[in-house]
Amino acid sequence: MPVLDKVLHPTMSGGRVLTLILWPLAILTIAHRTVILAVNGDRTDDFTPVYNAALHFLRGQSVYSENYSTVDPHYLYPPSGTLLMAPIAYIDPEHSRWLFIIASVIVLLISAVLLVKLFGLPLDSWVLPAVLLFFFCTETVTHTLVFTNFNAFVLLGEVLFLMWMRKRWDLLAGVPIGITLAVKPVLAVLLLLPLLNRQWKVFITAIGIPLLLTLIAWPVSNDPSSFLRRTTPYLAEVRDYYNSSIAGNGLYFGIAPWLLYVLRIAFVLMAVFSLWFLYRYYRQSDELLWMTTSAGVLLCTSFLVSSLGQGYYSMLLFPLLMTVFVSGSTMRNWPAWVGVYGCMSLDSMLSHRWAAFGRAMEYNKVTWGWSLLMVAVFCVLLFRALDIRALSRRPSGHEHPSAHAVTVKS
């Protein structure tokens, strides 16, 4: 009977059960987002303006001649980005878009694997399929594929930058962030990390690559000066559509400008305190936690206080979210994950029964998600600062926060 019982009731660890559940869910979700949603597309199309710009560049035609008064997606990449995007126009638009989607999915898969390895977690555990399932269930990844834009490559650039910077491969660390800066400057704020960590060689490639690509692209472009004359002023403007920054959201809802300035200043001050605390107490004791949390704070703050913050930028916060596997993480509290729901959930809040409420929730969702995430991180660090202050008044002295990786078993 004991032998028969083992046959009828084989034992299996909880981690193994999770792995068996999560892998098919992750694979089928990835297939659905790629083959169905992404190929179907949507009314928002980020790929066509890039394809047309690349085609005009190859033909020696004007690239920066769009009418920026419309709400359609515009081509906003600098000449260096146009040079990098030019190869997509060598084949027809439909197949080029499909190849770009496939490349984006591959890049996202690589990013997930590298993030799991970055945090020292086993690839054969339930963590990897859980991360992949989370990735492809979010609004940020789904719309990156559906709208077909460059964000997946920016995420890979961020992950490689953090990995190689931590390994002190400084010149190499500057390469991925330099390539992304040549296309869009969303990761520029992360250059504060090598500056604080005195890894000066990072700047050689991080700044040198976009400069070199600009020097190559400028003389072969038809109208490179139009980027400075027409596109750059438009980028500096606060627009009231597809903009989840505080300024853009406030402009859409007609919020008083003075209140928007107060909110932006408040979040900058929260970021300054958070970065100071992380630098003082975590840089030496847990460099990974310092880098990834600081990166999240810098990026989230830039999304909120800059002139443009689009919801699908949220994927760049994945390294911050992964810190939940590390003791000392600022993500181990429920308000932070309510914020994550706000800025990453694919759920639509539009309501036929309560139209005004649903509209307000839908168009505020990403903004309050980023805001709550920032407030949660700030409050966690503030409470730790107060605890340290209280401990310092005791005869036994005080201790710095500890941060040790959690071991995840399959």
From TrEMBL:
Alphabetized Pfam families for the sequence: GT87 (PF09594)
Main location: membrane
GO cellular component terms, A-Z: plasma membrane
Organism field: Gordonia jinhuaensis
Transmembrane segments: 98-120, 149-165, 171-193, 200-220, 258-279, 288-305, 311-329, 367-386
GO molecular function ontology, one term from the record: hexosyltransferase activity
Coiled coil ranges: none
Family to which this protein belongs: Belongs to the glycosyltransferase 87 family.
Entry-linked InterPro entries: GT87 (IPR018584)
Recorded topology in the membrane: Multi-pass membrane protein
Protein name as it appears in the record: Alpha-(1->3)-arabinofuranosyltransferase
Keywords: Cell membrane, Membrane, Transferase, Transmembrane, Transmembrane helix
Subcellular location: Cell membrane
